[in-house]
UniProtKB/TrEMBL annotation:
It catalyses: 1,6-anhydro-N-acetyl-beta-muramate + ATP + H2O = N-acetyl-D-muramate 6-phosphate + ADP + H(+). Keywords: ATP-binding, Carbohydrate metabolism, Kinase, Nucleotide-binding, Transferase. Pathway: Cell wall biogenesis; peptidoglycan recycling; Amino-sugar metabolism; 1,6-anhydro-N-acetylmuramate degradation. Its EC number is 2.7.1.170. It comes from Phaeobacter porticola. Pfam families: AnmK. InterPro entries: Anhydro_N_Ac-Mur_kinase (IPR005338), ATPase_NBD (IPR043129). This is Anhydro-N-acetylmuramic acid kinase. One of its GO terms (biological process) is peptidoglycan turnover. Catalyzes the specific phosphorylation of 1,6-anhydro-N-acetylmuramic acid (anhMurNAc) with the simultaneous cleavage of the 1,6-anhydro ring, generating MurNAc-6-P. Is required for the utilization of anhMurNAc either imported from the medium or derived from its own cell wall murein, and thus plays a role in cell wall recycling. Belongs to the anhydro-N-acetylmuramic acid kinase family. One of its GO terms (molecular function) is kinase activity.
Length: 390
């Protein structure tokens, strides 16, 4: 089915100039899908546009959760259909609103569709993001860039994190002239060290990135199981809890933390860490998992080549004041939500895949040795145009 969509364009992606790209991200927390428009030529950000969010229904979330860790089979098929449908709902909404907002406005040129990671084991089976980008290209009569991670993994990279090339563009957009860090606290945490004194993201030394460790996923899992809540809203459960230092030390003894970056994680790689807090009260257990997230970041910061001027925090974890306070205490530099510099911390990942879609379309790299450990710079991704592949 092709939706009636006044904002859609069917032509191939323009090879030059600033494009209007619509990126989407369905993260490891399985809460929902984000979508956001960025104006970019793939190198420099020229502006930010509308954004929107579509939550997964509880039944959808349960099916996605059941498919986590699977590489194939009926659960994976079902998850893929849910992801494609949820994105189609959201894309229809954003594209319609975008078209209504300005008749003279250039239509969205390209969609960057990350999909939903179900399994990630780059050195073993690879990485799996489900959802059908070709179907979305046909449905919205608009080119879709997707499957961003596979080429990087095939060439020896971790396949994640991929937002760092966008973080570099953000640092330039913000006119920063000293090294700084972007810290995403989603289900998993990831850190990008950016040196904006270098000209291009692919210059050696411009970027160092890696997953710091588990972030909100174990906290969510614990409070869902024990308290029937989706998350520790505002850190209300952890606040007043006592951190069990023995459990924290056992956690930090995990070999992942001794590994040099780049390195990446699957959502459930640390699922068993909940057993480290199983004897504790709800408050103490939640406080301890929250401290583990902060301690993993502090450990990761030791890899930064120079102290950053600031750590800008994005992702849902920045809404948790207990976690933010623990970060402020344990890091030797200022820590601030990314809103402090005028960016939207709930939409940064969706915006990243808008920017990366244009980079893929332009043949520019989306990862490099400093971000994923890939042997050389790689511009991964598949481009589907309405009626077939580009
Ligand atoms: N007000 C809040 N208080 C506490 N925690 C919050 C709050 N809002 C969001 N979070 C946490 O942030 C999580 C969502 O974060 P986010 O949307 O960045 O994750 P994601 O994009 O799914 O994950 P990832 O970046 O790992 O792919 C929620 O599941 C919750 O744990
Ligand atoms: C395999 C995968 O989907 N990884 C995600 C996940 O969520 C956070 C962290 O782990 C990061 O490595 C990555 O997402 C962001 C968007 C990235 O690629 O930069």
């Amino acid at each position: 089915m092709t939706r009636s969509n006044p904002s859609a364009r069917s032509s191939a992606i323009p090879k030059t100039g600033v494009l209007r790209a619509l990126g989407t991200m369905s993260g490891t927390s399985l809460d929902g899908v984000d979508a956001a428009i960025v104006e970019t030529d793939g190198v420099a950000i020229h502006g930010f546009g509308a954004s929107a969010y579509r939550a997964y229904e509880p039944v959808e979330r349960a099916q996605l959760a059941a498919a986590l860790g699977h590489w194939q089979g009926p659960q994976v098929e079902a998850a893929g259909e849910i992801v494609t449908r949820a994105h189609a709902d959201l894309l229809a909404q954003v594209l319609a609103e975008d078209a209504e907002a300005g008749a003279d406005r250039r239509a969205v040129d390209v969609i960057g569709f990350h999909g939903q990671t179900l399994a990630h084991a780059p050195r073993v089976q690879g990485t799996l993001q489900v959802g059908d980008g070709a179907a979305l290209a046909a449905e919205f009569n608009t080119p879709v860039v997707w499957d961003f991670r596979s080429d990087d993994v095939r060439l020896g990279g971790e396949g994640a994190p991929l937002a760092p090339f966008f973080h570099f563009a953000c640092a330039k957009y913000l006119k920063r002239d000293k090294p700084l860090c972007f810290l995403n606290l989603g289900g998993v945490g990831n850190l990008t060290y950016v040196d904006p004194r270098l000209e291009a993201a692919e210059d050696p030394g411009a970027l160092l990135a890696f997953d710091t460790g588990p972030a909100n996923a174990p906290i969510n899992d614990l409070v869902q199981a024990r308290c029937g809540q989706m998350m520790d809203e505002g850190g209300a459960i952890a606040r007043g809890g006592v951190v069990e230092t023995g459990a924290l030390e056992l956690f930090l003894a995990e070999s992942y933390f001794a590994r040099m970056p780049p390195k990446s994680l699957d959502r459930n790689d640390f699922a068993e860490m909940i057993t480290l807090v199983s004897e504790l009260t709800d408050r103490d257990a939640t406080a301890t998992l929250t401290a583990m997230c902060a301690a993993a970041v502090a450990q990761g910061m030791e890899h930064c080549p120079e102290p950053p001027e600031v750590v800008l925090v994005t992702g849902g974890g920045r809404h948790n004041p207990v976690l933010m306070e623990m970060l402020r205490v344990s890091l030797d530099c200022p820590v601030a939500p990314i809103e402090s510099v005028g960016l939207d911390g709930d939409m940064l990942e969706a915006q990243a895949f808008a920017h990366l879609a244009v980079r893929v379309a332009r043949g520019l790299p989306t990862s490099c040795p400093g971000t994923t450990g890939v042997r050389a710079c790689v511009g991964g991704g598949v481009v589907s145009v309405p009626g077939g592949e580009d």
